[in-house]
Amino acid sequence: MTAETARSRHDPLWRMIALAWPRGGRFALGVVLGAVATGAGVALLSVAAWLLATAAEHPPITALSVAVVATRALGVSRGVARYLERLVTHDAAFRTLADVRVRVYERLARTEPVRRFRSGDLVSRLVSDTDATQDLLLRGLTPPLVAFLTGGAVVAFCTALLVPGGLLLAAGLLLAGLAVPLMAAALGRGPGRRQAAARGEMSAALVDTLYGAPDLIAYGAMDRAVRRVEDADAELTRVARRDSTLLGFGAGAMALITGLTVWGALVLGVAAVEGGRLDAVSLAVLVLTTLAAFETVTPLPAVAARLGALRASGERLFGVLDTPPSVTAPEPDAAADGALSEGAPEDTDLRIRSLRVRYGPDEPWALDGVDIDIAPGRTVAVVGPSGAGKSTLAAVLLRFRDPDAGTVELGGADITRFPVDEVRRVITGVPQDPHIFASTLRENLRLARPGCTDEEIWAALRRARLAHEVEAMPRGLDTEVGSHGTRLSGGMRQRLALARALLAAPRVLVLDEPTAHLDPDTRDAVVADLLDAAEGYSTLLITHDMAGLERVDEIYVVAEGRVLQHGSPAELAAREGWYRDALRVP
């Protein structure tokens, strides 16, 4: 059985609890402090019962002094222990939650699963479902253990007073602390799962509507989008009402069992007093201690009713954490010697041999035996129809996917033998849809090299033919670009992404469909600027567009994952095939 299979068979609740294992000592201390606080509350009522019953017999005041002091001590210790319990358990839970968030972020950053989830649903997984770990640890782990410790001690005490009374209390606590929670958990499993799904759908619908508002309004689809949000909200409200019904059931069942148990203890106690097996003071202690004992199990039904939602949140959380990596990091002992970033661009050659990639065991090959060479300082274009495998090639080069077969060598070194970040420092470029962060131009550019100076930024902007536009802006490099760069034109976003890539000082530039979302006039200008800026680099231009291809050194025509043609632009234009046919299309 593989590790992934073993993990998938474990209950998400146990896996969430296991996340707190490094801080198990703190949680154990919190359980002890919680038991002390709850036990002090029960003991306080017991001592108060003894004090009141004894005082009714008018004993000497000295006989009550110990009970008076004990009452004060228990009152103080209860508050102090409760404070310390909350301090210790919340500190441990928050630290565990921070670790979980870091693990989620690292998994998203290292295994590229972001595009496998809808953006709104992913936000829900990162926030609500991750926070469920804290909820489980604080309300689902500590209270049952505290109830077990304190309830056992109280039952033992009441049994010492009156055996039938202790047995009755044990039965009542088992019903209230075990049977009712189990029933609430069973009834809450379905609604809990629906609640997690409804919360994710609500988040996804809301994010899609907000971010897509301009297009939705333009195409008259805003009403449908709003109805989708309203439907998601209605479903979430229905699930919340069912959850409230379960909470009401738990509270009502708890009150009923508590009342019946206390009445039963009173009846048994009165019979024992009449039989001479129990005195009146002990009867008062027995009854009030029985009433106070149910404080230990009061939180359990509400927690149990939420286990379904917590389990569903755990499944969604581990759905992110268990996402298999698209790229396998090399083993430390298998890593290649030396740094891939060593060497100058003019010494760089990129060789792709027999490259094969597919997205699933039963899927067709996206790339099927591709061979491509990029000599140092040369510009090579890979062209072909949509779905030919061109973007898959870019994903392999930028280490977003592992090859299923074949090799990619840079300067004679297999890039899969180097850490991902090392490869991305030397092979970078402009993706098909570059992400522009909602910040300033300067901060977007400094992502590539955090320590770069403004002079270096301006040099990169000039090379990307964007300096003139930035100089014309009132705030220059401090201009806010808006969410996803909405304050910039499509061509400016592409040039900004190119300037960012140039700041990283790579050895190979990969330009993946840089004109995919541009109009024809802008497209020609952007291609010319990109190729001018890439001069001197080993450059791979991946495109289905014919604009600017007369300036590249070599062209590879790819279709259905295979190289169909290879040659210079002039050679391919003179040869029958896809390239010449595409040139003829107006």
Automatic annotation (TrEMBL):
Protein name per its UniProtKB record: Thiol reductant ABC exporter subunit CydC
Membrane topology: Multi-pass membrane protein
Database matches in InterPro entries: AAA+_ATPase, ABC1_TM_dom, ABC1_TM_sf, ABC_CydC/D, ABC_transporter-like_ATP-bd, ABC_transporter-like_CS, P-loop_NTPase, Type_1_exporter
Pfam families from the UniProt entry: ABC_membrane, ABC_tran
Primary location group: membrane
Domain of life the protein comes from: Bacteria
Residue segments, region Disordered: 323-343
UniProt domain ABC transmembrane type-1: residue ranges: 28-309
ABC transporter domain residues: 350-585
